Amino acid sequence: MGQKVHPKGLRLGITFNWSSRWFFSDKKVFRTSINEDINIRMKLLKAYSYASVTQVDIERAINKITVVVYSVKPGMIIGRGGKGLEEVKRIIVSQLKSFQGKKKGKEIKIDLKIEPVKKPYLNAYYVAQTIAEKLVRNFPHRGVVHNAMDRVKEAGGRGIKIQLGGRIAGAEISRREKYFMGTIPTSTIREDVDFSKYPALTKSGYIGVKVWIHR
To answer: Hey, where are the domains in the chain?
Structure first.
């Protein structure tokens, strides 16, 4: 029986870099830092979903944290005169404080960067999010999927695979549907294959969206 691995996890250190880049020898500090990173990432992805945030990278040094937010619409995060950046920093600070509790540690300097996603339709997270949002608005699922595949091909993608799972189109019995275009060499480590998944909460229930893109 074939064993499946995460396409991005398989390529870490080869075609993909880690989302959190730091190391602590102290196990307690390591554990706290991991939880902080997870919460910061989840909060920012949820709070700025309207700006199509696709990735949040975090680097740490002594009393300093660097957060790089990748967005399809960076202007919506930055705002007029950079006012939106203060709100992003406030979210990061609140997550850091929630794990520190009442303990007063040294003040941590926050370095925030907002980077644009140059080719959004070659980003699996953005494509999965776009499909999910249209499914929530009751767009015909086949039309949504084929439109996304065409956009990926136009952007220069060498292949794409999309999988939907759940009560598709309000069906009584849940099912899975798979769509392919081009090549998806999931086992070839040197190939750049991006992967992501996104849930779509429809009136009938959740529909899972998985996207593989061969760039």
So the answer is: 7-116, 120-214
